[in-house]
Amino acid sequence: MVENFSEKADFIWSIADLLRGDYKQSEYQKVILPLTVLRRLDCVTQRNKEDVLERYEQLQKQGIKNVAPALKKAAGEKVYNTSEYTFKSLCSDPDQIASNLQYYINSYDEETKEIFEKFDFGHQIQRLEDADLLYKIIRQFAELDLHPEDVPNEEMGYIYEELVRKFNELSNETAGEHFTPREVIELMVNLLFDEDDKVLTEEGVVRTVYDPACGTGGMLSVAEDHVRELNGGAKLHAFGQELNPETYAVCNSDMLIKGQNPDNIAYGNSFTNDGFADRSFDYMLSNPPFGVSWKKVREYIEQEHEEKGKDGRFDAGTPRVSDGSLLFLQHMASKMKPPEEGGSRIAIVFNGSPLFNGGPNSGESAIRRWIIENDWLEAVIGLPNRLFYNTEIYTYVWILSNAKSERRQGRVQLIDAREMYVELEEGLGDKKYKISKNHISEISKIFGEMEESNRSKFYDNDDFGYRRIVVDRPLRMSFQVTDERIQKLKKEKAFSNRDEETQQHVIDALSSLDSDKQWMNKDEFLNQVELTFNMRNVDVRKSVYNAIVRALGERNSDADIVTDSNGDAEYDIDRREREKIPLGSDPYEYFERNIEPYAPNAWINDDSKYYDEDGDLGIVGYEINFLEKFLSSDPSSSVEEINEEISIIKSEISSKTQELLNKKHEIITRSLEDSDGLKSGPSWLVGIPENWDSSPLKYNVSIETGSTPKTTVDRYWDGEIPWFSPKDMKSDLLEDSQDHITKEALEETSISILPPKTVFVVVRGMILDRTLPVGLSEVPATINQDMKALRPDDHLLPEYLALLLRAISPLLLEVVKESSHGTKRLDTEDLENIEIPIPPVDEQRQILEDVERRTNKIDSKIDEIYRLRDDVEALEAAVGNQRQALLMSAVTGQLSDK
């Protein structure tokens, strides 16, 4: 490390004080970083400036347009400037400094001009001039000596990177998007190069490193420092790509002022405009954005996935559209060198979601399966929370290699470093902790020594895989003829399609049965119904009998098992369970040993659709339950103590979520009220603008109710059509559901498919005790009977309707009722009669943009909490598994002191 760079960095930092009052602190870098680059280039180009000007004049006289090659040769650099100005000469004409400075910048080579265009520095020149600051700041920079003879490239790199770091910390509200804490990068770099440190010390070694989301280039710089410290004669060529124009400019200029090739940093989206499509690299590392949607590039990525297959980057699968993290990993894996050429190593940092999100049919699981079955995953390191600048969540570093050393082959190392941190004296945004140098050394040592301990565990690749089997239990139903159930029958499509006379005959016949009697056997009940119909000459189709069963029956654990025409038990869809069994286990043996003792009437559903592509029963999935693997690390923690901790965490999560939702509700409501010239409107608003309308919801939407296809008909289930129920309502945008139905279910039942941009609302369930889930479907879908589907008329945008319902959810929760069974419900009458404000469509769009801008950070926090909730649920499941194993050991005489 160059020791005396800090004096110059501090001097440049002090210049920013001139901006105080006219610029926000978070905006200082928009001025200081470009001018630091410009002053360095000013010093670099002075060495051969006369030669460049002379050669430029010759080329002009000769009429040569492509002057760049000749001028770069004259300059002896990749950078040149054809104006006579320098920083000092610019200061000699204060009145014209703005126009002269812009002329000076425009006189640089095209590559350098592009950097300042991406900085949008022309805008800052005018802003500084208007504030009477431009001359003062240029004069200060002119006094700064950044000549290469006095400040070598290495030292200049340290100066610039120190400024970038300090500015990123100063503007910590956005730092997490472009900036990874230095200590996290140092740890990643240590782990990335660990297996190759000996190779990197060889004389004349040349290697490449790549970051597909390089931000300001911090990871690339630390990688260069690491190799330089190992071997001053080694060369590490850095490559990267960045989407944000300003951070691209920072990274590109960092390369430029260190004397490296700025062409190695590409601008644009790595997915749709890969700047290095035909390249492979020795090392790759990245901190891709956490939980960021890839919806804007969805069409491109899915097209590559479908059309290119194994010749493309995304053959393994595509994750849910709300989180593109695993797309970056696939993109990087596509650039690995073949093992016979030495292979490649990858370090990437994720939040917890890529570890376990998605079941065995999901894109996430398919990607994990692809990575692990190829034996590329070396290690996962769990880091402390509150390390990053705009997130409190835990993060995980994945280390991959397609040329594993023999000692690592076939297994994965998990390192628990979640408690290895020191507290900062003063937090920076959400960053409250940091990993110390000692911690970095200790984690690196644990990784390198590969010894088992409480912090380090090894698992075979197969240990992360499982087969998911479907376990069914018998359906038990009782039947009773009550007024409430007769009303349900009237809503059954198979019944309401009959003529009115037939409907009345059926109702009269059923009403003649004893309303106090409860039949505990389906066949006995239907025999009684059929006898009554025959006595009254009521002749109906089988579909009406099925409607009667659905409407007049209810699940009852004390009732007899319902059987089909063959005498086989029908399954209960609500009691269907999907069990994960370890890879290599026989499903039937596992069932007999672990499930049947507790569910004697259950059975494995061996329908062909539950077989994996490998031909065996049970769909294969992969997940890395990091928390579960370290659950028993503390022998002093009992299952009860862990459960108590989980309860506390869940309570905190619920409280924090509600707090954020309340903030969001306030913002939405305020947006609806932000207008002058109000007139009376809905009672829950102060007023509405004169050009708005208001009316009950029912006059502006069509409302549809969902239903459940018959659970005893296998061909209705596990298809490709999403079937949403309250358990799926975890986000504002709904892309997929846990359960799916088939086309046969649509064709043979009354359930109908709903188009994208339909608003779904939960109207029944205990969740209504605390919140009203509202979601906007992104795909054609169906819903169950606990939901309502709202399809707005043309004057109401679906997105606005969803936003509005979230805003008025506290009002709707006030009218939620409790059924005799204790279930919460929102009656259709109360929903459809709520009065809503209706702005013109263009104003609806404006409100949506305004709310999105104001609530963006809140939504990000809510997403983080939902991810944390997933982590806790995974931990809770792990505790349950541990308890179950304990009980099994106890009752089978296998319980030991250990």
From TrEMBL:
<dbReference type="InterPro" id="IPR003356">
    <property type="entry name" value="DNA_methylase_A-5"/>
</dbReference>
<dbReference type="GO" id="GO:0009307">
    <property type="term" value="P:DNA restriction-modification system"/>
</dbReference>
<dbReference type="Pfam" id="PF12161">
    <property type="entry name" value="HsdM_N"/>
</dbReference>
<feature type="domain" description="Type I restriction modification DNA specificity">
    <location>
        <begin position="689"/>
        <end position="858"/>
    </location>
</feature>
<dbReference type="Pfam" id="PF02384">
    <property type="entry name" value="N6_Mtase"/>
</dbReference>
<dbReference type="InterPro" id="IPR000055">
    <property type="entry name" value="Restrct_endonuc_typeI_TRD"/>
</dbReference>
<keyword id="KW-0238">DNA-binding</keyword>
<keyword id="KW-0680">Restriction system</keyword>
<feature type="domain" description="N6 adenine-specific DNA methyltransferase N-terminal">
    <location>
        <begin position="10"/>
        <end position="141"/>
    </location>
</feature>
<keyword id="KW-0489">Methyltransferase</keyword>
<dbReference type="InterPro" id="IPR044946">
    <property type="entry name" value="Restrct_endonuc_typeI_TRD_sf"/>
</dbReference>
<dbReference type="InterPro" id="IPR051537">
    <property type="entry name" value="DNA_Adenine_Mtase"/>
</dbReference>
<protein>
    <recommendedName>
        <fullName>site-specific DNA-methyltransferase (adenine-specific)</fullName>
        <ecNumber>2.1.1.72</ecNumber>
    </recommendedName>
</protein>
<dbReference type="GO" id="GO:0008170">
    <property type="term" value="F:N-methyltransferase activity"/>
</dbReference>
<comment type="similarity">
    <text>Belongs to the type-I restriction system S methylase family.</text>
</comment>
<dbReference type="InterPro" id="IPR029063">
    <property type="entry name" value="SAM-dependent_MTases_sf"/>
</dbReference>
<dbReference type="GO" id="GO:0003677">
    <property type="term" value="F:DNA binding"/>
</dbReference>
<dbReference type="InterPro" id="IPR022749">
    <property type="entry name" value="D12N6_MeTrfase_N"/>
</dbReference>
<keyword id="KW-0808">Transferase</keyword>
<keyword id="KW-0949">S-adenosyl-L-methionine</keyword>
<dbReference type="GO" id="GO:0009007">
    <property type="term" value="F:site-specific DNA-methyltransferase (adenine-specific) activity"/>
</dbReference>
<feature type="domain" description="DNA methylase adenine-specific">
    <location>
        <begin position="155"/>
        <end position="454"/>
    </location>
</feature>
<dbReference type="InterPro" id="IPR002052">
    <property type="entry name" value="DNA_methylase_N6_adenine_CS"/>
</dbReference>
<dbReference type="Pfam" id="PF01420">
    <property type="entry name" value="Methylase_S"/>
</dbReference>
<dbReference type="GO" id="GO:0032259">
    <property type="term" value="P:methylation"/>
</dbReference>
